Amino acid sequence: MDSGDTDPASFFHHLTQAAPRTRAKTAALLTFAPEYLSELTAFTRRYFRAFFQRLPPTAVIVFDNCHEVPPEASLDGILANMLCEVREGISILMISRSNPPATLAHAEANRRITRIGGDALRLTNDELREIVLSETPVDEPTLASLQTRCDGWAAGLILMLEHLKASGTLDPAHPGETFEGAFNYFAGEVFDRVSAPTRTLLLRTAFLPRVTATAAESLTGDRNAASLLEGLFRQRLFTDEHPGEELSYQFHALFAEFLRSRVSASLPPEALRQLRADSAQWLEKSREPAAALKLWVANGEWGAATALILSQARGLVAEGRWLTLKAWIGLLPRTHVEK
Q: 301 is in which domain, residue-wise?
């Protein structure tokens, strides 16, 4: 599905092209004409009555990317009328990043349709293990890395497995080359399709482990940051929502890697350093010192990194986390440690 399906004539034309060839005693499929606009319901039901007659008894029809069709289009009504004519045994899958339209509420209430949400489609660790080991032998650390980085996303797992089989490792050969197939998917299916303000928000918040509306507005200057984040979550664009003192959003691990790679490649060095510094300052204010320290280290801003470590040292020791403190100090150049 795409924006071209706003026109009912286009929708029915392409559906007719996809239909099986006419069998004996099968009614011909109607051709949509302008005069049918005034009686769209009657045309739709007659069309699908004939359409379903052409299909095998257990056929499956898939309407992918239903969210691409604008809400003001008549497609929702067409799909609702289609459900009234579907034969027993035929299954219809409507794939969308948004919730079912109001026109399908009656069908949902009568259990003619049911929802399978994104959480239900995520692979469990057992399912992931079975898929991976059926494709290629891997050790437990590699399996654990796949589980963490794909976070149940089936397509992401397949893309990572292809990378693993081709290179023998999950590590990039060069900076920015990690999972090229997955990155191309994110670019074509998500990043290039969202609005310019949303792309800016994604890039400006790429270094935050979790993003609040306040943080996004601070880093982008966009007062609509809250609605943009909510839109990413509602469209299931690799964005999870987490309750708390302030609602926060977290990008899928692979999607976050893609965003960091994209922003590193698209910004001039000085602008990239400034974004890391702005993000680190925000993380310090948000009491996320570990994430902030990584950014100060990436920038080579050893003074800021040292000050952060010193501000956290007493608390870490009091909590018995001296090994964490030791690891943090180990990130600094030896000359700074000596000082």
A: 267-339
Cβ count within 10 A of residue 10:
14
Domain stop point among 97, 115, 133: 115
**Inside any domain, residue 150:** no
| Joined tokens for residue 80 | 């609702």
- Count Cβ atoms within 10 A of the Cβ of residue 163 and give its class: 0-12 exposed, 13-18 middle, 19 or more buried: buried
**Which amino acid, 235?**
Q
**Of 115, 138, 172, at which residue does a domain stop?**
115
Q: What is the pTM of this model?
A: 0.57
The DSSP secondary-structure symbol of 20 reads: P
Local structure of 1: helix, strand or coil: coil
245 within domain boundaries:
no
Scanning the structure block, which residue is given the tokens 């310019």?
196
Q: For residue 54, give the nearest of 85, 84, 33 by alpha carbon.
A: 85
> Measuring CA to CA, which residue among 234, 223, 227 is closest to residue 71?
234
Q: Mapping DSSP to helix (H, G, I), strand (E, B) and coil, where does residue 100 land?
A: coil
Is the predicted pLDDT of residue 273 greater than 90, yes or no?
yes
Taking the C-alpha atoms of residue 198 and residue 201, their distance in angstroms, rounded to an integer, is 5
* Residue for token pair 């000085």: 270
What's the CA angle centered on 256, arms 252 and 258, to 5 degrees? 120
pLDDT in tens, 35-80: 888 899 999 999 999 999 889 889 999 998 888 787 777 788 888 8
Q: Which two tokens stand for residue 47?
A: 């069309």
